[in-house]
Amino acid sequence: MSQNIQKIAVLTSGGDSPGMNAAIRAVVRSCAFHKIKCIGVFRGFEGLIEGDFKTLGPRTVKNMINRGGTFLKSARSKAFKTKEGREKAYQQLQKEQIDAMVVIGGDGSFTGASIFIEEFNFPIVGLPGTIDNDIYGTDVTIGYDTALNTVVEAIDKIRDTANSHNRLFLVEVMGRNAGSIALNAGIGAGAEEILIPEENLGRDRLIDSLKRSKKAGKTSSIIVVSEGDQIGKNIFKLADYIEENLNEYEVRVTVLGHIQRGGAPSCYDRVLASRLGVSAVDSLLDGKSNIMIGISHNQITTVPFSEAIKNSNELDLELVRVADIVST
Ligand code: ATP
């Protein structure tokens, strides 16, 4: 165990995700377990630059495991992208005598953290906190499971009304660059079609497929569209196109938007966040830095920030095949 680390800071950065509070709680309680101090940084890198700090003890994080969002707040900081901003952040850390930091966020946050480590040789480990599950080096990210459950629950409700009116519903879900939410929630909610950014199905193939569904006796349909999908780029225009080409369908659009980010974390996310939070403190105390802690085959893993940032997750072709088969 490193004797040099007496005080660890923790912050959340980028988009919030359910389970971030559980991760902060695990970091705080792990610090208490090891008898070292823990400092919460409010508003991500922005608060780091401004020295917006608060000492966190084990009781400060009571009743936190079940709360969505992040009580430390999150932010996107333009100033941290400048050398001057990062200098200020380093001075704040020095002033508060903080020895190491845990950054909970997405790949943008890890990029900022790794630049900071290079410039100031300051120890940082990252935890993947994003609903998009788009980070290389971990099977899942904190918040992803909760977001999937939220999407499935919403689509189940939409299906009730789709069935009652013989309607076709286009449901837009989050995922600018990755179709992970769309693909998994689409299978889980029994969608007829799933449109994802990694695959360009083409509008004509979509129409053909919907015609086949109609012939096969389907009277209503759910199409899950990832927000970054190429054909569904503007989901309202896609709805118009389908109505023009398939006039037997009444098409409706639902954009799920930010409800996907909110809500109490699922049990899976709470356990994941707790495991990753404890490992983050263990890793810093072991003298590790410049890494993200992830999970692979239910085992804790570490991956250098450089790899987590550079690589992207491959599309799971087995899931695409399953989606095709089960929507027949
Ligand atoms: P999400 O996946 O939810 O979008 P993220 O961590 O990828 O999360 P970003 O907005 O991309 O979210 O990044 C969060 C913050 O990280 C930025 O606001 C900025 O302060 C910092 N950051 C991102 N890229 C850099 C960079 N190249 N240099 C310095 N800081 C950066």
Structural description of this entry:
- This protein has helices at 20-33, 44-50, 83-95, 107-120, 144-165, 180-188, 203-215, 235-245, 267-285, 305-310, 317-326; strands spanning 7-12, 37-41, 53-55, 100-105, 124-128, 167-173, 193-195, 221-226, 250-255, 291-296, 299-304.
- The chain is α/β, with parallel strands linked by helices.
- It folds into two domains: 7-143 and 265-310, Rossmann fold, CATH 3.40.50; 145-261, Phosphofructokinase domain (Rossmann fold), CATH 3.40.50.
- The strands form two sheets. A seven-stranded mixed sheet has the order 3-2-1-4-5-10-11, with helices on both faces.
- The N and C termini lie far apart (56 Å).
- The model has no long low-confidence stretch (mean pLDDT 94).
- The chain binds adenosine-5'-triphosphate.
- Its cofactor is Mg(2+).
- It catalyses: beta-D-fructose 6-phosphate + ATP = beta-D-fructose 1,6-bisphosphate + ADP + H(+).
- It is found in: Cytoplasm.
